[in-house]
Write a structure and sequence with these properties.
Largest sheet: 8 strands, mixed
Structural class: alpha+beta
CATH architecture of the largest domain: Roll
CATH topology of the largest domain: Dipeptide-binding Protein, domain 3
CATH class of the largest domain: Alpha Beta
CATH superfamily of the largest domain: Dipeptide-binding Protein, Domain 3
Number of helices: 15
Oligomer: single chain
Organism: Nocardioides humi
Pfam family, one: SBP_bac_5
Keywords: Signal
Protein name: Solute-binding protein family 5 domain-containing protein
Distance between the termini: 67 Å
């Protein structure tokens, strides 16, 4: 009997909307703004070991190395770096810190902190995706030039370094060397510190984390409008909505199906648009013994689901639309987008024929369902998809799982995927490369999830693309790869999703970063007049 090991990820790709903010009132007040979320992920304060969901928890106290504008483009104005320049083949990057940055204890941010940060994110203990894998596998050294400048040296070219140093593609925040040397990372858990717009106050594990505004923050335009921030964990959506109605919370994460009811109750919907390209990915499809290694099996599962009906059922207009025909990790907002590719059709009879062709034997597929801060509807979506597969003859068992635990298991190299399926978020990263790395490459090349059926081929693609400095040339090559992946059914796109929140009367607007649902930009929440 052929063993079936299928792991599917309903994933998340990110792009945000702008909400109105005041042009003049940047002074914080003494009020506390309370935000209730569905998940805090690991609740760990060691940034190099975070998974993306953790940014909603500890991110407010840090600055990313490279910042972003509200439209999602990289910014020389909002991050720790004011410039980043490659040499002619992108094997060396000169990184320059901006002047005037201070840690929360008043000490200057210097190039020693930048060197420490790069080395820490490249250490064996670092488990974050993309940038951690890049530095672990490709860091040749960091040279400190002066108090504000370092040269990042790589063993092989990487044109995608700027994207990986920003909040959208990977997320790396500058770390305080002097403070970590004083407290150690264990002590840092109790006494964390950054340079960001919010200062840590206290936390109750499993309940909340509290911050106060950094009124001396170096970027006066992004000093918090509220004096205090309380981020509260409330996994149950009914509980979050009750908190909003009672005034216990000012903004809460809501699933797409809650949008109409929240509007009927008079709450405003604040969205980060196009944040998630939800998709199905096939773990362990690289193993020739697995059914998912065969394109016919992957195609069968794609054709078996009426994605138009799934999206219509779970995503009102404010929450999302059917994904484009691009193969994941491509989308209309990435390099390599091909507008001529059509979404996969619904053809259940052809799906059954293909299952017979590959000799599918009725083995049960475990569909691991993971809940994320920006995907509270995930379980319902998975059940709908499982229902379509069941009609086609695929036996599915839905299993609840924690992503952090699953990620750690996959990272060991001993992940036994089958017979199984799962869901986890994948950001809609404009460069594409930062998604290819963790999703498609071999483990030796930095792959974390190993969801591509031919990872050695993906390694070659990635090495080739990483040396194409000219963006137009890289875009053309990526479009060719997009078409090849589309014909391989390596993944199954589902929806282009928005991340939605309901807000009460104390909030008049919000200006989050487009393209990243995990960076909530609490400092831009605007108090009502």
């Amino acid at each position: 009997m052929r063993r079936l090991a299928l792991v599917i990820a309903i994933a998340v790709a990110l792009v945000a909307t702008s909400c109105a903010t005041s042009d003049t009132d940047t002074e914080s007040n003494d009020d506390t703004v309370t935000v209730a979320l569905a998940s805090f992920s690991r609740e760990k304060l060691y940034p190099p070991a975070f998974d993306p969901g953790g940014l909603v928890y500890f991110g407010p106290m840090f600055d990313f190395l490279i910042g972003a504008n509200p439209d999602g483009s990289l910014s020389t104005d909002t991050g720790a770096l004011e410039s980043w320049e490659p040499n002619e083949n992108a094997t060396e990057w000169t990184l320059a810190l901006r002047e005037g940055m201070k840690w929360h204890d008043g000490k200057d941010v210097t190039s020693e902190d930048l060197e420490f940060t790069l080395q820490e994110f490249g250490s064996p203990e670092a488990t974050c995706a993309a940038i951690c894998a890049t530095l672990q596998n490709n860091l040749a050294g960091v040279d400190v030039v002066d108090d504000r400048t370092v040269v990042l040296k790589l063993s092989t070219p990487d044109v995608n370094i700027p994207a990986k140093l920003g909040p959208i593609e990977s997320s790396i925040m500058i770390l305080p060397k002097h403070h970590v040397e004083k407290t150690g990372w264990e002590g840092f858990e109790k006494d964390p510190m950054g340079s960001g717009p919010w200062k840590f106050v206290r936390r109750q594990v499993g309940q909340s984390i509290e911050y106060e505004a950094n009124t001396d923050y170096w970027d006066a335009d992004r000093r918090p409008r509220f004096g205090k921030l309380d981020v509260v964990l409330a996994p149950d959506q009914n509980t979050r909505m009750a908190m909003l109605k009672s005034g216990e919370a000012d903004m809460v994460a809501i699933s797409p199906d809650e949008v109409p009811r929240a509007q009927d109750d008079g709450f405003q919907i604040l969205s980060i648009e196009n944040t998630i390209v939800s998709e199905m990915l096939f773990f362990k499809s690289y193993d020739p013994k697995e059914f998912a290694h065969q394109v016919e099996f992957r195609k069968a599962l794609a054709l078996a689901v009426d994605m138009d009906e799934v999206v219509k059922a779970f995503y009102p207009t404010e929450a999302g639309t059917r994904a484009s025909g691009d193969a994941v990790p491509f989308s209309p907002s990435t390099l390599g987008h091909d507008p001529d590719l059509e979404p996969y059709p619904y053809d259940p009879e052809e799906a059954k024929r293909l299952l017979d062709e590959v000799g599918y034997d009725g083995s049960k597929v475990k569909l691991w369902t993971v809940t994320f801060p920006d995907g509270p509807e995930q379980g319902d979506v998975n059940e709908a998809i499982a229902g379509y597969w069941d009609k086609a003859g695929v036996k599915v068992e839905i299993v609840q799982a924690e992503f952090a635990t699953l990620l750690e298991t996959m990272g060991t190299g001993d992940f036994d995927a089958g017979p199984a399926a799962t869901g986890f978020p994948t950001s809609n990263r404009p460069s594409v490369l930062a998604n290819m790395e963790p999703m498609m490459l071999t483990q030796d090349a930095g792959g974390r999830f190993r969801t591509y059926w031919d990872p050695e081929k993906a390694d070659k693609w990635y090495a080739e693309l990483s040396q194409i400095v000219d963006e137009a040339e890289r875009d053309a090559r990526l479009r060719e790869i997009n078409n090849e992946l589309y014909n391989e059914y390596w993944s199954i796109p589902v929806a282009m999703k928005n991340t939605t929140y309901a807000a009460g009367k104390r909030i008049s607007g919000w200006d989050p970063i487009s393209g990243v649902s995990k960076v909530i930009s609490y400092e831009t929440l605007e108090p009502a007049k």
